[in-house]
Amino acid sequence: MGIITWLVLGLIAGVVAKILLPGRDPGGLVGTTLIGIAGSFIGGWLSTKFLHRPIPKDIGEPSMWVASVAGALVLLIVYRLLFGNSRERR
Predict the structure, then answer these.
(1) Considering the chain, what percentage of its residues have pLDDT values greater than 70?
(2) Which of 7, 13, 27, 52 could form a Cys-Cys staple with 72, CB 3.0–4.6 A?
């Protein structure tokens, strides 16, 4: 898979993570999108490193989607814990 495919997958994973974990994020839409892309990369890397799963060549592989969304969810939770909801503090 190419880098563009990973970016698109990360974008979609970020949207899915945002739907599964609603609320206002400190970074807004751009921050959530970047977290989704980073989560996609991290989830894919962790699944290949620790679960010994090769990186699939097909974007329709369910394990790739699960790893990407899980990575995005974890990063979104960590981001919210670290930075909180900065909009409420004003």
Answers:
(1) 76
(2) 13
